[in-house]
Design goal:
Largest sheet of chain B: 6 strands, mixed
Number of strands of chain B: 10
Distance between the termini of chain B: 38 Å
Radius of gyration of chain B: 18 Å
Number of strands of chain A: 2
Strand content of chain A: under 5%
Oligomer: heterotrimer
CATH class of chain B: Alpha Beta
Largest sheet of chain A: 2 strands, antiparallel
Radius of gyration of chain A: 20 Å
Helix content of chain B: 25-40%
Strand order of the largest sheet of chain B: 6-7-8-3-9-10
Chains: A mainly alpha (308), B alpha/beta (249), C mainly alpha (383)
Largest interface: A-C, 43 and 46 residues
Shape of chain B: globular
CATH architecture of chain B: 3-Layer(aba) Sandwich
Number of helices of chain A: 11
CATH superfamily of chain B: P-loop containing nucleotide triphosphate hydrolases
Number of helices of chain B: 10
CATH topology of chain B: Rossmann fold
């Protein structure tokens, strides 16, 4: 498939598709970060994670409409506000869900899968009732439009760089929170030994709720980023759930760096292969490769050998 | 070091395992005679359970050899090690809580271990007789049709010992068999173990020094993955190094 | 036979449950429903095959597969490929540019039957493939995963990914698979019209008969030592391993059995509905199949059948009346079952009715003496 192109062309194609894949990468990273916290740390299989992302996307959509109709002068900045609102909305819903459902299921991880699947159906129908079945899109603010010309053949989309920057900041924030703050220490303590953590005075119920909310909130941010690459519909989130779980597992469930690296690998190979063989086959090939690698190396890319 | 052929039922030579650089067991050598009761003691983290894990194949050795009746175990799969004649009881009594005592013993009965063997496995009169015989030895005759979940902690320990006995292994490895038992139950267990030793070899991990003295032929003291002392219970008890790191003054 | 007495194979409660189910499916439904509704029940029963397989895999083996739709689809497509080839005889397709190949291939400018379609000219091959292809595929997946001791959540995610890949592949390769529409327009089986009312009746009873064959096989596995090993494995994998069993083989075995059952179910769907499409292969149908099993009770074989029937009947009646509210209701059912009824409908029966029924049977038939406690596993759920 490469033989039809010159080396220079190939290089340019790889670079262009690579940059085009940046937004996908950012969405993957943000989705997977949230899931890495919820699944990697808490062992909860959140099948509604995609719906939390879509909540963020709808919040972004509503915010952009509000700005357009009430304060059109500041329309350029709606996206920044939307990110914060998306985080808060998805986080609040996450806390509610943890309180109403997840907390009863910590000892039955496979059952969280079924219950959150039920939740995802309810959320989808809610979106359909509120926003309609039609997909909605947002207008990208002017300053995010267009692209930066790197060379004759290579252009970098500005919104891609921006979303990328958000993903990087979110990753750093989560890393600091999990490994440098006392709250992160509490989370890890609760995860490792719930009764003991409770015995030394950690409010495990609160830690669980906040952790779950944080994971969902980050999915909300992913939703904001998502509005840049796709239109938002009630069931759009479902398409991402498999990829996200694969990203997390492929990266080695408990490792943040692994998550980022695997999000990068998967999104970039998908984006580059797309150019040569079309979307669906690119996806099949990428997913299949990941699944085969996981069958050969089930612990993922980054793990420690530990004493059992 | 080249592994040698020996008369010992179990010969462990140069055994080492490291977890990310931490050597849980370090260049360990020890030998167990036939029909011996060997007790392994040592402070927490000394590597006692890891040694049992290594022998029964639950953990892979980094280097060294484990020879059971001159057969190398380090490269064998767990079920094959069991079939070779090594039985192992876990630290926390692991019995099948959803099944009855009878069914617990039935599963442990050493025939029909492949999938299709299991499909064809029949509760023949011999199987039932053998199960009843073992149940009697482990003091659980009256509880045969009780769900294992309802047994006391001590009875669960006995049941797990029974599950090993029914396999007729030549080497039994018991990880803390009397933990959580009452004084009376301990006494009964000591009698049971001495009885078992007439036909089987045993490696026992235990903390209770009085119980150790009651059953042990020979004691091995582990400390930080190495052997600190070895010998009769009496000799070990008075070894100054052992007193220093383990027994206390 | 590995059982000394019939009672070791089926307890009284089991016999009663199977008999009631047989009465319902063989007498009550055919007499009370018109053929359209009966055909619909037959479709629901085709999902029950998957749910019965999941009782073994998930309920007993603790293996949650989110890719059962793949096996259902493989069985369904195997059947559909044969029927499609029969419907695409050169006489029937003489207007095509390449007569004798399925119409969708012709539309996609394919001029020769692809190699993997060729064996499906034979009904025997197709019937064998319905069971063997899903089982072999399950064996490969199971071997790769269980031998490396991957299970639980990871297994669920991998199987789910396989379901996703499979759907994308089928939809993407339109010329080879019929794409998103699936394989449609199936007409005859060995020259016999399959779209008549009479054929629907025949297929319904074939479906019920096959379902009972699967139920009897599953009951055999459940009550044999394999069933006990599976229960033992759920909580104490290490103990089973150190009793000399190779755990992976047992998991592979039930996974293959579950896949074969699903394949038969898929074929039954194709026969009764006259088509097969990727909408029964992907993530959503696969999870729904797990839900059927959960609603029925993940440890109860007849429960799985009731679960498939109940959820689907609710879906059809409720969905026809209030399409808006259906997803809400479905979501609430899932959450409710998981939170409040982890043993499903069968759990409700066991808690409230099993003892009185047992007492009644004891009065009529005399005491029941068995050595098993397996018959009423009340606290069986630990996932």
């Amino acid at each position: 498939m490469f033989s039809d192109f010159t080396t220079a062309e190939l290089g340019a194609i790889f670079a262009m598709q690579g940059f085009a894949g940046l937004i996908l990468f950012a969405v993957f990273v943000l989705m997977a970060l949230g899931l890495a916290i919820i699944f990697g740390q808490m062992k909860v299989i959140n099948m509604a994670h995609g719906e939390f992302m879509i909540l963020g996307a709808y919040v972004t959509y509503v915010t952009s409409n509000m700005f357009a109709s009430h304060i059109p002068d500041f329309f350029g900045y709606y996206f920044l506000v939307a990110i914060v609102l998306a985080f808060l909305a998805a986080g609040a819903l996450g806390a509610l869900v943890e309180w109403g459902m997840i907390r009863f299921l910590y000892k039955r991880p496979l059952d969280t899968l079924l219950a959150t699947w039920g939740l995802s159906l309810i959320l989808q129908q809610t979106y359909r009732s509120v926003f309609g079945a039609r997909e909605v899109g947002v207008v990208t603010p002017e300053w995010l439009d267009g692209s930066y010309r790197l060379t004759d053949m290579i252009e970098v989309p500005i919104n891609g760089m921006f979303v990328m920057a958000i993903a990087v900041m979110a990753t750093i924030a989560v890393a600091l929170l999990m490994y440098r703050s006392s709250w992160g220490k509490q989370v890890r303590a609760v995860v490792q030994n719930r009764p003991m953590a409770g015995a030394v005075g950690i409010n495990t119920a609160r830690v669980d709720r906040m952790t779950f909310a944080l994971g969902c909130g980050i999915a909300g941010i992913a939703g904001s980023a998502f509005t840049m690459i796709g239109s938002t519909g009630p069931t759009a989130g479902q398409a991402y759930i498999v990829d996200t779980f694969l990203v997390v597992v492929f990266g080695g469930a408990a490792s943040l760096m692994g998550t980022v690296a695997s999000a990068f690998t998967i999104s970039q190979s998908q984006s580059i292969l797309e150019f040569f063989m079309g979307g669906s086959m690119a996806k099949v090939l990428t997913l299949l490769t990941v699944v085969v690698i996981l069958m050969l190396r089930p612990q993922g890319l980054f793990t420690l050998k530990v004493r059992r | 070091m080249s592994p040698t052929n020996t008369d010992f039922i179990l010969a462990v030579e140069g055994l080492t395992v490291s977890f990310d650089g931490f050597k849980a067991v370090n260049d360990l050598n020890f030998y167990v005679d036939k029909n011996e009761i060997r007790v392994v003691i040592g402070p927490n983290g000394a590597g006692k359970t890891t040694v049992l894990d290594l022998i029964c194949g639950r953990t892979q050795a980094t280097s060294g050899s484990i020879k059971f009746k001159n057969r190398e175990l380090t490269r064998m799969s767990e079920p094959n090690i069991v079939k070779a004649g090594v039985g192992r009881k876990f630290q926390n009594p692991s019995v099948y809580t959803d099944l009855t005592v009878f069914e617990n013993l039935e599963i442990s009965y050493p025939s029909g271990r492949s999938v299709f063997g299991c499909l064809a496995f029949k509760r023949s009169p011999e199987v039932i007789a053998r199960i009843e015989e073992v149940a009697e030895r482990i003091f659980l005759s009256d509880q045969l049709y009780t769900q294992a979940d309802l047994l006391s902690h001590g009875q669960k320990q006995w049941l797990e010992i029974g599950m090993l006995l029914i396999q007729k292994p030549e080497l039994l490895m018991l990880d803390e068999p009397v933990a959580g038992m009452s004084v009376a139950e301990r006494r009964q267990t000591a009698v049971l173990l001495r009885e078992i030793a007439k036909e089987h070899t045993m490696i026992v991990i235990e903390h209770d020094m009085q119980f150790v003295a009651e059953i042990a032929h020979k004691v091995t003291v582990l400390h930080q993955g190495r052997i600190l002392a070895e010998g009769s219970p009496d000799k070990v008890k008075h070894d100054p190094k052992v007193i220093e790191v383990y027994l206390g003054h | 036979m590995p059982f000394n007495t019939f009672k070791e194979y089926m307890s009284r409660q089991d016999v009663l449950a199977f008999a009631v189910l047989a009465l319902l499916l063989l007498v009550v439904f055919p007499l009370s429903l018109d053929i359209l509704r009966l055909n619909q029940v037959g479709k629901f029963l085709s999902f029950a095959f998957v749910a019965v397989g999941l009782v073994l895999c998930w309920g007993y083996g603790g293996i949650l597969s989110l890719g059962q739709g793949v096996f259902y689809g493989l069985g369904g497509y195997a059947m559909a490929m044969y029927l499609k080839l029969e419907a695409s005889s050169p006489e029937n397709t003489s207007i095509q540019s390449t007569p004798g190949i399925p119409d969708f291939m012709d539309w996609n400018r394919i001029t020769e039957l692809p190699w993997f379609w060729v064996p499906f000219n034979s009904l025997t091959v197709a019937l064998i493939a319905i069971v063997v292809v899903p089982a072999v595929f399950a064996y490969l997946i199971g071997f790769a995963m269980f031998k490396r001791r991957v299970s639980g959540v990871y297994f669920a995610i991998i199987t789910q990914s396989i379901a996703a890949i499979m759907t994308i592949l089928i939809i993407g390769q339109q010329g080879l698979t019929g794409g998103v529409n699936g394989i449609t327009d199936l007409r005859t089986l060995k020259g016999w019209e399959i779209n008549t009312d009479f054929a629907s009746y025949v297929f319904y009873f074939v479906c019920v008969a096959m379902l009972f064959v699967c139920l009897f096989i599953a009951q055999f596995i459940r009550m044999s030592k394999v069933g006990k090993i599976l229960i033992a494995m759920r909580g104490q994998e290490d103990r089973v391993r150190f009793s000399g069993y190779d755990i992976a083989n047992f998991k592979i075995f039930v996974f293959c059995v579950g896949a074969a059952f699903a394949g038969i179910g898929g074929a039954m769907f194709t026969l009764q509905e006259g088509f097969m499409s990727p909408s029964f292969v992907g993530i959503v149908p696969s999870i729904e199949m797990v839900i059927f099993c959960a609603v029925g009770g993940r440890l109860s074989l007849p429960g799985a059948v009731y679960g498939a029937l109940l959820v689907n009947i609710a879906k059809t009646t409720f969905g026809e009346a209030f399409p808006q509210l259906w997803l809400f209701a479905m979501g609430l059912i899932f959450i409710g079952v998981v939170l409040a009824l982890p043993n499903g409908v069968a759990g409700v029966y066991n808690t409230f009715f099993a003892r009185p029924v047992d007492a009644l049977m004891a009065r009529v038939l005399g005491r029941d003496k068995t050595r098993n406690t397996l018959t009423v596993p009340e606290q069986g759920v630990t996932s």
